[in-house]
Amino acid sequence: MPPHVHxxxxxxxxxxxxxxxxxxxxxxxxxAALALLGEGCSFADxxxxxxxxxxxxxxxTVYRRWRNKxxxxxxxxxxxxxxxxxxxxLPLRDKLVALVDQIRHRGQDTLxxxxxxxxxxxxxxxxxxxxxxxxxVVAQRRRAFEQALSExxxxxxxxxDLDVDQAIEMLTGPMLSRLILRQRPxxxxxxxxxxxxxxxxxxxxxxxR
Amino acid sequence: MPPHVHxxxxxxxxxxxxxxxxxxxxxxxxxAALALLGEGCSFADxxxxxxxxxxxxxxxTVYRRWRNKxxxxxxxxxxxxxxxxxxxxLPLRDKLVALVDQIRHRGQDTLxxxxxxxxxxxxxxxxxxxxxxxxxVVAQRRRAFEQALSExxxxxxxxxDLDVDQAIEMLTGPMLSRLILRQRPxxxxxxxxxxxxxxxxxxxxxxxR
Amino acid sequence: MPPHVHxxxxxxxxxxxxxxxxxxxxxxxxxAALALLGEGCSFADxxxxxxxxxxxxxxxTVYRRWRNKxxxxxxxxxxxxxxxxxxxxLPLRDKLVALVDQIRHRGQDTLxxxxxxxxxxxxxxxxxxxxxxxxxVVAQRRRAFEQALSExxxxxxxxxDLDVDQAIEMLTGPMLSRLILRQRPxxxxxxxxxxxxxxxxxxxxxxxR
Amino acid sequence: MPPHVHxxxxxxxxxxxxxxxxxxxxxxxxxAALALLGEGCSFADxxxxxxxxxxxxxxxTVYRRWRNKxxxxxxxxxxxxxxxxxxxxLPLRDKLVALVDQIRHRGQDTLxxxxxxxxxxxxxxxxxxxxxxxxxVVAQRRRAFEQALSExxxxxxxxxDLDVDQAIEMLTGPMLSRLILRQRPxxxxxxxxxxxxxxxxxxxxxxxR
DNA sequence: TATTAATCGAGACGGTACGTCGCGTCTTTTC
DNA sequence: GAAAAGACGCGACGTACCGTCTCGATTAATA
Lengths: 209, 209, 209, 209
Hints:
Distance between the termini of chain A: 72 Å
CATH superfamily of the largest domain in chain A: Tetracycline Repressor, domain 2
Number of helices of chain A: 9
Number of domains of chain A: 2
CATH class of the largest domain in chain A: Mainly Alpha
Radius of gyration of chain A: 21 Å
CATH topology of the largest domain in chain A: Tetracycline Repressor, domain 2
Low-confidence stretches of chain A: 1-5, 8-12
Mean pLDDT of chain A: 84
Structural class of chain A: mainly alpha
Largest sheet of chain A: none
Oligomer: homotetramer
CATH architecture of the largest domain in chain A: Orthogonal Bundle
Strand content of chain A: under 5%
């Protein structure tokens, strides 16, 4: 009987007897965390006590579900549903613009970005958090980018020797840096368009070409 | 006798009388902070007590100089001297590669990047920290980029309608995102070269070449 | 969730739920405080940290029970059990001597008197401390004196117009002043006897008697 | 050249050369201390910084004169001029009442008593302070009492076997205890009269009178 | 239906860091 | 020299969270 059986009461739990975890508490906690972060509460400000209070739940009820603050915030992060944009049938440029601009939209009210900013610091010494961060946030976006770029290569629109990984960094880096590191708002899709156009066409002047 | 006249003893201070702040203490404290951060101590782990102890100084002596941990770390950050690379006479591509790759070098041992990562979270709710961050770290790099890009435009190598701000995001974003947000090492200049080449040439296939 | 509900877990507390305060901690803390004071540690020397350490308890555990040092010391003071002397059947003079001399005995090892001396200074600006001091230390002694003196009046041994309050001051004042203010030891019951005899007989020479 | 040459620059100082200590500072400091204590500032509240500030003097100037807070407060205490009441020609009872009541008057505005209360605590562990307290406050009063009582014995008014020391405790103790320990105001001379009358006549009922 | 076991609320507990304050000493400049 | 100003080392203060641990009261599946 380990001291913490986090998520032990998840579906498929073999135990017999005992009260079930209240699924409403799960939701209330995550929502409370998100709400607080959205209200300008930094990662460090966000205390477990505050979250529990806001969720109308005892502190232990939070700890029963998530080992610590990072895990909680990460879960809150993961609980945001991330709408995948419709790319079917769009031309390559528009696909890429949609994907890049989606990064901006995912942080409604800049909540997500603040949240990510908070995690960045903690992540410094917790490699597994970085991994989870990658899985949760980066991975699926990555796949969408990979697909769009591969199609571009196959269709001949993009160079055959394109380094896809590198290309993804090129496309996502500017937006991420702007939103999370420099914490500046991006108000329109113009930023994404500009990034994609530079990415596709480069910046050399090509008069005679 | 204000309770906190931080940095009051800075150069040019008009006061007469009173013991001067020991400049050795300033250095010792900043170095201690940097050393600890460099040794894998995260922003949250870094306690004022630890810094003071390492610096061989009383805790109050730290607080006399910096109001709190964030201010201290920011100062430590600013105290890193940032070598400006020699760009004179280099072709545009090499200039840009040097500038982009310098971002990587500035965080020797990833110290600076860890440090920045730690600040990112705190900065979320302290706008003035973001500003200071911009001034301290971003501004002078920005100027170097601006100059190189402007020269490129003037020489006709870059498009006349280039949006310089946007271009800087394109060049620095990928590296920053990789080093700070995703906390992945970048071992060679190849990354910077790749970024610059994509930036200059774009990624479209160009059959006529 | 009030920040400080000191003594909330006292007997008769209606709350349900929540871990009970460890009564062993209460005792350990009070004993630690008394021990330290008894070992020659002055009121100012007595640090909360030291008390907690000696009691084998976290500092917060002390603060959870008593708001600050004064409250703690006062509680420690109150925790001394004060043996009430057997007065039944004694002649008036002996009753009074026993009561006056008890003041001396209550501060075994002068612990109590040192303690009181320490409180006197703090009490200067905290009226409620003076009140608590009265309740804790003075009140029950007062009642014993009142009873003895009233009996003396009723039996005709003492003047009918005796001002009882004043009389108590007369009896206790000299001993208190000597022990606490002047901090001089009183080694035998002779002092008490002398006080009582003067109190009863006065000091006028009475040749004709 | 000892680190502290307290009071070295007092009148009669043999040194040659160097600036003289400003006697106005002496006064200003003592007055500041007394004023603060009089305004309800307890001994613990009274910080050297506050005193210096109020006196319009640097903190070091205070320390140059008195080694620490206790010494300063004690000096402030001593600086109060203590009017000796005119006893010449009064009957014994009136002499004693005047002396006892003088204890009350000496603490104008209860300043002195608060001050003494503050010292009591510190004195617990500083024997020399108690001594100085005795010298400063107790001694000269003691002599006045001794004289009055001796005269009473010689004149036959008081018992020949009177223990003078004990008698002084009897007379002063109640007032001191009331003013300093219990911190209760005494508004009229009635208290002193009552003390003296009990002292002289005792409290036994005396049917033949 | 009774038993049993896990959850829930509340909140105490040992830690650790925070930022402030006061002490008594020291250094520096001016008078 | 003394005086004003103020830095310095030290150490206590009281607060705030952290993550763990009891409690008694609920609540569900099992026996």
